[in-house]
Amino acid sequence: MNLLDGKATSAKIKQEITEKVNEYVNKGFRPPHLVAIIAGNDGASETYVGHKEKACAQVGFTSEVIRYPENVEENTILKKIVELNNDKEIDGFIVQLPLPKQVNEQKIIETIAPEKDVDGFHPVNLGKMMAGLPSFVSATPKGIVELLRHNNLSVSGKHCVVIGRSNIVGRPVSVLLSQNNEYGNATVTLCHSRTKNLKDITKQADVLVVSMGKPNFVTADMVKNGAIVVDVGITRIKSDKTKSGFKLVGDVDFENVAPKSSYITPVPGGVGPMTIVSLLLNTWQAYLSNIK
Ligand code: GUN
């Protein structure tokens, strides 16, 4: 078993981004600037946005968080988005999901200018990705592909089984892995809550990507010997073994699946750091187009 170390891989990519930022700043350009909007009191969202801010500072980007209370009106956020769309000093921005129930997420996403949509959630970016055109690819699917690529793991000709069909992870990653390019060319099966005989399918997987948000769902009997296992799940559960009283667990029963796999991502330290660094890569891409 080899660990697919997202922490180490993302550190390498961050170093490369830092060098490029320094080069541009030394030439007299301003650094890249990312804005995050967060509405309500979702604890996980606060943690994620905190990680994103910290990562920006590490590579020399500037960043800003705009916060709204739980009872914010949809229109307030829409107006702010239009303002950010028109601000030349902002290269990209994200609206952290989930949003309070009175706010229509799809309307919010569709108001973001596609060229500033560094989360890659706008239908224009999703459509371009589907067509294999240059676009912002959402951070988690991009991070998974980058993690495999940086560890010299080709999926070409392999059977990739993805569990979970969300717009943010499952569906886009299944498109990327099946695309006709050097990072794709896999045969992909997309499984979800209505899939019958799930275990029969997962046992055929050369590469298993799990994104369902159910702690320890994938057990050793569901995994083929030598499979590459990518665990996107991250759930905080109570634990009497840690100081905080909580621990983070993935969707894969790591302890029992790891010995069977050829490569496996840990949780934490696998896909999570790759997601953050992919947002930085997207912001860098937006910056280069913006400062032209
Ligand atoms: N909520 C969970 N993951 C994400 C993400 O990657 N971006 C945003 N904006 N919200 C999220």
Search tags:
292 residues, binds guanine, three-stranded parallel beta sheet, 16% strand, alpha/beta, Rossmann fold, 40% helix, 10 helices, single chain, 2 domains, six-stranded parallel beta sheet
What does this structure look like?
The longest helix is centred in the N-terminal third of the chain and has 21 residues, at 6-26. Helices cover 40% and strands 16% of the residues. By secondary structure, it is of the alpha/beta class. The model has no long low-confidence stretch (mean pLDDT 97). It folds into 2 domains: 30-113, Rossmann fold (3-Layer(aba) Sandwich); 139-272, Rossmann fold (3-Layer(aba) Sandwich), CATH 3.40.50. It has 10 helices and 11 strands. Bound molecules: guanine.
Helices, strands, pairings?
Blueprint: E1 2-3, H1 6-26, E2 33-39, H2 43-59, E3 62-68, H3 74-85, E4 92-95, H4 105-111, H5 123-130, H6 139-150, E5 159-163, H7 170-178, E6 187-191, H8 198-202, E7 207-210, E8 228-231, E9 235-238, E10 246-249, H9 254-257, E11 263-264, H10 271-291
Parallel strand pairs: 1-11, 2-3, 2-4, 5-6, 5-7, 7-8, 8-11
Antiparallel strand pairs: 9-10
Helix pairs in contact: 1-10, 2-10, 6-7, 6-10
Bound molecules: guanine.
Guanine binds next to strand 4.
Structure summary:
This protein has 292 residues and is an alpha/beta fold.
Question: Strand pairing plus helix content: what structural class?
Answer: alpha/beta
Which regions are unreliable across 5 or more consecutive residues at pLDDT < 50? Answer: none
Overall domain count: 2
**What would the principal axes of the Cα set say about the shape?**
globular
Ligand catalogue:
guanine
Indicate the radius of gyration in whole angstroms: 19 Å
Strand content: 15-25%
CATH topology of the largest domain: Rossmann fold
End-to-end span in angstroms?
A: 46 Å
For the biggest β-sheet, the strand order reads 1-11-8-7-5-6
**CATH architect. name of the largest domain:** 3-Layer(aba) Sandwich
Identify the CATH class of the largest domain. Alpha Beta
User: What would CATH call the homologous superfamily of the largest domain?
Assistant: NAD(P)-binding Rossmann-like Domain
Overall pLDDT metric = 97
